[in-house]
Each structure stands twice: as C-alpha cells, then as structure tokens.
Amino acid sequence: MTSGACLRTSRTMRVMKLLTTTATLVAVVCSAIAVLLAVYGPVRPLWVLFAATSVIFLPVTLVGSAVVRTGPRNPVGWILLVAGVCLPLSMAALIGAGIRYAHGGDPALLDLVTLFSATLSVPLIATFGILLFPDGRLGSRRRRLLAVACSVEMAVVTMWIFSPKLLDFPKVDNPLALGSFADGGVFGILLMGPVCLLTSTALLRRARAEGSPALRLAAYAGYVIAASYLACVVTGVSGGDTLQITVVENCAALTLGVAAWVGIVRYGLFDLRRVVNRALLYGTLTVAVLVVYLVLVVSLQGLLPQTIATVGAALAVLPLRDVLQRKVNQLVYGLRDEPAAVLGRLGERLDAAAAPDDMLPAAARTVADTLKLPYVSITVGSTVMAACGVPGSGRRVSLPLLYGGESLGALELETRDPGEEFGTAERSLVERVAQQVAVAARAVALTHALQASRERLVGAREEERRRLRRDLHDGLGATLTGIALGIDTAVRAQPGSSDLLLRLRAETENVISEIRRIVYDLRPAVLDELGLAEALRSHAANLGHVSVDAPLELPVLPAAVEVAAYRIAVEAMTNATRHAPGALIRLELSVDRALELRVTDSGDGIPDGFRAGVGITSMRQRASEVGGSCSIGRVSATGTLVHAVLPLEEVG
Asked: Rounded to whole angstroms, how far apart are CA atoms 593 and 25?
C-alpha cells in the first residue's frame, strides 16, 4: 500500500470515528431529552414508554457505529446507525410536540421532525436493514425484486409526512400538506408487515444455504418486527389506538440490533472487537447513568436540582467502570488481560483430563475459549494432535513447543481479523501458554512412547512364548520322550541293570511332566491346537447357553492379540455365566483393521455404582497391553456388554 493510500485510509478512519461518535452522542442526548421531558412535562403516560424505548434502542446505534467504523462501505452499518439516531430523535420530538400542544402551542414543526425521523428508523430496518443484512449485497434476482418492493414501500410510507393533518395531532393542519392523496401513506403501514415477512424469509433462506446461525438469528429477529407491524394493523382494524403498538414496533426493531450483537460477539459475524469493546463499555455506562439519574430524581421527587442529580449519577456510576471494563474485555477478548487466570484454567483442564490422549484436545479448547480465538491447533512432530474451531481467513501465529531445548511441534493460533496482531502483553501470554502446552505435549509423547514400548514388549513376550512352547513341545519334549523309550529298551535288553534304568526313566518322566507344565503355562495350548475361534467355541460349549458368531477362518494373528482376546473372552463368558445364570450369552468376533470382540448377555445388567473387580480390571489391562481398549456397560435397560477392540498393526 502506498503512502498516499495509507494517508487516505487514515483520514477516512478519522472521519468515520468522528461521525460515529457524533451520531452516538446525538442518540444519547436525544434519549436523555426524551426521558427528561417524560419526567417533568405534562405528557400522556404512553409517551413515558416512548422515552423508555428511546433508551432501550441505543444498542442499535452502537451496533451501527461499530459496523460503520470497520466497514464504511457496508450499507447495513449506515442503516442501523441512521435508525439508531432517528428513533431517539423522533421520540424526543414527539414528546416535545405533545408538551407544546398541551400548553396551547403549535406542535407542527416538532411533529414533522418526528415523522421524518420515524420514517428513517424502524421502517428502514424492517425493509432494507433485514434485506441487506449483514454484508449489504443483494445477489440473486429474487432479492433484487425485493429491493424494488422495499423502495416502493418506503416511498409509500413517506407520503404520511405530506398528509393534510398531522399524523400524531389529527386536529392540527400540516404545513407541508400536498393533498388528500397523501393519506395513502397509511397503506405503507398495512404493507410493512408483509414486506418485512418477505425480507426475513429471504434472509432465512440465505442463512440455511450458508449454514450461518448468526444470519438465522437475524432472520428470526426480522419475523419479530413483522409480527409487531401485523399487530399494529390488527389493532387499527379493531378500533384500538395504534400509538400503543408503536412501542412494540420500536422494541421489536431492537431485536435486530441484539441479533447483530450476538452475531458479532458469539459467531464472529463482523470483525469489530475493538469497537464493540468500547461501544459495550460506554453504552452500558451511559444507560447506567440514565438509570441512576432517574432513580435519584424519582426517589427524591424534585428535592434535588437536576445538575446535582446528573453529577451524582455520574459519580455513582464511575466506580463501575473498572468492573465493566473487565467484564467487557472478558466478553470480547476472553481472559487476555488476566494471564494468571488463563494459565490457572489451562492447568485445571490438563489436570482434569481423564486420559493422556485427552490432554492436548483439552489444552486446545482451553486456549481457544480463554483467548477468544476462532481456531487453535497443536502439532507434535508433523501430526496435528488436537484442534479446536474451524480454520478461517484470520492471521496465523505459530509458536514453537520447546522442551529441554528440543522442538516438539507448534501451537497454531488464528485471529479473527487478518490484520489483528497480538500486543506485547498478549504475545508474552501466548508464549507462556505455549510453554505449558509443550510440557503437556512432552508428557503425552512420553506416555505414547511408553505405551508403544509396552506393546512391543508384550508382543515380543508372547511371540517368544509361542516359539518356546513350540520348541519345547516339538524339540526337547520329543527328545526326552525318545530317551524314555530308549531306557525301556535297555531294561528289556539288560535285566540286571533295571533298577538304575527305572530310576532314570522315572526322572525322565518327571522332566517331561515339568516341561509339559511349563509349555501349558507359557500359552493356552488350545490356541495352537484349535485356533482362536474354535478354542472359544470349545469353551462356550462347556459353559452352555453361549452362542459364538465368528468367521470360519481368521487371519494369522499376533500372539499377544490372540492370547489377550482369548483371555478376555473366557473371563467375560465366565462372569456372565456366574452373575446371570440361565441368561442367553452371545459372543461375536470380527476382524477388520482390528480384532473386535463383543460378549453380551440378557441378564439384569451391571448395578449402578459398581466397582470393577479383579476380572474386569484384568480384561482392561490385557487390552491395554496390546494398545487396545475394553469397556463394560449396559446393552440397554438390562443386560451387560463387554466390548474389546484390539489393534492388529504391530508397533514399530
């Protein structure tokens, strides 16, 4: 960007800041005037509600100001800003006109101000505000036709300004009257509800197409505005006072401003966090000052001069600024101003992680939540171990995860705004967070390495046991058996040495028995004799009431997985037979990329609050040793399920 472009951008930003600040001050002043007139002037009780709605409507001004500052070319910001200024202006002018009329004065000028500003408030939001929300683009041909309908609607509504009689004072002549045809402006009110329904429906369709909850919320707010206009029509047709519905219309239009706030703060609809921060703070302070002022005036009933009441309200609210600033910062920026709170919460989440694999996802969620970031990821080596949020177009910040001078990976942070940068304090905070995440990553890496080593050890142990069993049974066992047979032959050939040979044969038999015992203890013999599936069918047949569903042929399984599956299945069937006698038991065995084992029964199920015994603990440990998992729970209302998943890939 050239220096001239930078200068123009800076000048534009200053102009926007001055303009939005002025507009916000005008809205606040008009609201204050409306409240003062309602408190001290002889007005109708209904107009007190008008004054209240002018104060309630101030958030719309703040939202419009925020959007205009960051996106001056977005017409939605200008619509909200104009409406946010015009509604308090119209309410103040209307109450002033009412007081002037009550004192015998001419209310024409003030009421015309009311009509002009009222036309540019709620009707403008109900038409173009909803139709163009949130980026100001029309897009489809259908939406362009709706824009034409909104233009016609606004033109018809404007006609009431030129009717023969003032709208709010039917007995007073309108100095801008153009003829009786201007009374047709009433049709604008009749059509406002249907037009608002159409624009809200168009916005809802767009929200569904884009999958945007923020747009969906704004569309629902549009339906509230449409309902308020339809209520005005129903009231008018039934002979009621439509002025009462004006309060409802004003408050209904506020829902769009609230929807925009939620879209900004929760869904990131606009990147306005700095402006939102200030708008929320000073908007809340302004409302607080007005509330305290009204409480002082009403409670003291005129005993306190207005100037003293105003100063007293400001002084009473001033101590709240720091508290509000902290709360607003937490809402917009998270806990960036409270490093101890961020690190403390991160430590709590890591400590509460149920398993090592839950630590890094918990860390990513905590960083995203506490720092209000749309996307956070943790990479260990070249693998993304945890991520929170959806990657967007924000600025990426990568922080190395260092432990003992070794780089373990990186902590990736994405800001909401491509131009947003972390300040010095924020950078220091995220670096400290990265240090804590590095410790967690190191712990997870060590845990994984330990688990992998354990799996390799168990696998090697079982493979070696299978080899030893085969060697002892087929080699040494056969050799000793041959020696025993040779001794028998020697006894028959040399009867005189039979006592010595018989003792040797007895010792040989003892050695053969001991070797056989060692062979059987090394590994279930039935696995080598029948295979896993047939071994389980054989055990199930001995128990009774057990059906086995397993493939006819299983692939060659790692020795450790084969033994673990057999031990878990036998323990599960034995437990089911013991605790649910007579219940139907079903064993299912399947193989894909892992060996999956399911044992279910139709008994009463595991009681609430049970504690795992030796058998269940043993099943879980056997599954864990080979890198798998084993869970025990209910099938439905009754019955128990033992579900084990044992990976087949050997650990490298």
From this structure: 67
What is the pLDDT, as a whole number, of residue 251?
A: 66
Running DSSP on this structure, what letter comes out for residue 1?
A: -
8 A C-beta contact, residue 169 and residue 206: no
CB 582 within 8 A of CB 543: no
Q: How large is the angle between the packed helices 58-70 and 45-56, nearest 10 degrees?
A: 30
Amino acid at 93: A
CATH number of 3-271: 1.20.1070
Nearest Cα residue to 454 out of 642, 621, 643:
621
Contact at 8 Å (CB) between 414 and 373?
yes
Q: Provide, rounded to the nearest whole percent, the portion of the chain with pLDDT above 70.
A: 66
Question: What's the CATH class of domain 335-446?
Answer: alpha beta
Residues 44, 289: Cα–Cα separation, whole Å: 25
Q: Specify which residues 400 forms β-bridges with.
A: 410
Domain spans of the chain?
3-271, 273-333, 335-446, 456-525, 526-647
Query: Is it the case that residue 517 has pLDDT exceeding 80?
Result: no
Q: Residues 354, 357, 362, 365: what is their CA dihedral angle, to the nearest 10 degrees? A: -150
Beta strands at 406-414 and 375-380: parallel, antiparallel or unpaired? antiparallel
**What letter would DSSP give residue 651?**
P
* CB contact at 8 A, 408 and 424: no
- Whether the bond between 551 and the residue before it is cis, its omega within 30 degrees of 0, is no
The residue written with tokens 């709208």 in the block is 167
- Cβ atoms of residues 625 and 564 within 8 Å: yes
SS (H, E, C) 593-604: CEEEEEEEECCC
Task: Report the distance separating Cα 41 and Cα 12, nearest Å.
Answer: 42
pLDDT at 651 (0 to 100): 39
List the beta bridge partners of residue 518: none
Q: Which tokens go with 452?
A: 């992998």
Are domains 335-446 and 526-647 of this chain identical in fold? Answer: no
- Rg over CA atoms, the chain: 40
Strands of 396-403's sheet in order across: 383-389, 375-380, 406-414, 396-403
Structure confidence by residue, pLDDT tens digits, 69-97? 777 888 888 888 898 899 889 888 888 88
Element spanning 580, H or E: none
Residue 549 identity: D
Q: What is the DSSP string of 166-212?
A: -SS-TTSB-TT---GGGGGHHHHHHHHHHHHHHHHHHHHHHHHHHT-
| Helices of type H across 372-476 | 424-471
Average pLDDT over residues 387-392: 79
Q: Which residues pair with 598 in a beta bridge?
A: 588, 643
Which CATH number among 3.40.190.10, 3.30.565.10, 3.30.530.80, 3.30.420.10 corresponds to the domain 526-647? 3.30.565.10
Q: How far is CA 345 from CA 222, 233, 268, 399, 569, in A?
A: 39, 54, 24, 20, 42
Cα dihedral 73→74→76→79 (10° resolution): 0
